């Protein structure tokens, strides 16, 4: 699973760090650090973190909007 956080959108609410602390963490009061290659064992926590972000700054390849698995098309 690949994560991308739009750090220009992120406002430092830290909901993601609370819900998936092994993937997201706050550095200081406003700077977010995260593991862009979260393991599959973190799927449920990451899905909750994505859904909880008040500014929708987090996207995760392989998750649909409800947090379930999503097939990725190769374009054919």
From TrEMBL:
InterPro entries xref list: 3Fe4S_ferredoxin, Fe-S_cluster_ET
Record SUPFAM superfamilies: 4Fe-4S ferredoxins
Keyword Metal-binding tagged: yes
Pfam families noted in UniProt: Fer4_13
Required co-factors: [3Fe-4S] cluster
Transport as UniProt keyword: yes
Domain of life: Bacteria
Its job: Ferredoxins are iron-sulfur proteins that transfer electrons in a wide variety of metabolic reactions.
Record-given protein name: Ferredoxin
Annotated organism of origin: Streptomyces canarius
Lineage, opening ranks: Bacteria, Bacillati, Actinomycetota, Actinomycetes, Kitasatosporales
């Amino acid at each position: 699973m690949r994560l991308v956080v739009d750090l220009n959108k992120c406002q430092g609410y830290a909901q993601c760090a609370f819900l998936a602390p092994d993937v997201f963490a706050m550095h200081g009061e406003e700077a977010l650090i995260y593991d862009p290659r979260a393991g599959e064992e973190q799927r449920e926590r990451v899905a909750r973190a994505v859904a909880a972000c008040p500014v929708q700054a987090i996207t995760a390849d392989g998750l649909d909007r409800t947090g379930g698995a999503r097939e990725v098309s190769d374009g054919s």
